[in-house]
Amino acid sequence: MTPADGPSETTAVLLMGYGSPNGADDLAAYLTDVLHGHRPSAEMVNEYVGRYQRIGGSPQNRTLASVREKLERRVGRDWPGTRVFLGVKHGHPALRDVIPEAAHAGFQHLVAVPLTPYASLWISEPYQQGVADGIRASSTPITVDVRLDWHLDPNWIAYWSRAIRAELAAHPDPDGAVLLSAHSLPQQMRDRGDPYPEILQDTYSAIAHEARLDRWSFTYQSPGNTTEPWLGPDINDVMVEWQRRGARNQLIASFGFVFDHLETLYDLDVVVREFAEAHGIGYRRVPMPNDAEEVVEALAARILGPGNPPGDARSLRAPAKA
Description:
9 strands, alpha/beta, disordered C terminus, Rossmann fold, globular, 2 domains, five-stranded mixed β-sheet, about 325 residues, four-stranded parallel β-sheet
């Protein structure tokens, strides 16, 4: 299937996101889904209610809806009339519901792309499970070609390069530092052979080169509240180290995410900001891409281009229901 040929009338696109609660009343059910059916404690629910209240609620669901709409228009320029469905791992509309809906509407094949560029096992396995659940729930056969791995798309690198340079130009400080951050993950995932650290290294190296950065570091953020070790270096430790090296002002570019949600608006703009201020460090953050044109173009390129070669572990193809 190529842009010249276009998809058949039985092919649609599936945009996949993580998902977010729609409000405080939805949090308990949402966290139960995240915890694989285990109901969260009242203390955990209250903690998350407080976090969401602190940031004024997450814009994630609105952003996903906007990206879906823009992507449908963009793909439609090459494949006129193509429909783009939106499904999420947690919350609504769930992948396990959207895939049967697409099949019921007459689509036999979905080209799916996640709204994350990183083909980590930690990230891709839940999408694979959601796709498999959706196929099993469908009363009619449907295949789903999941196309991962767009972290080096030129549009993605260009967004971060441009946005970082714009912030540095607006707030010049020759002694400042740029911290390129991404979500941490448990060390056990790395021990299983998850390629996440190498994928991130390729990405932040490309961003730093394109943005012509001199004083910068890579950091992990948002480790889980567990007793097991998580990947480092942690952002707080890196900030203190840069302060020792004279960087009183530090710019955070959270390239590990595509859009604003709890990990940027709370973990960074509340928790890390408070840490920085307590240590006399000036904190600023590069705006997230959200539904920027570069994101839509990167997603469209992954959809419109050819699929991964057979046997590539980063292309997950689910079979039709027997």
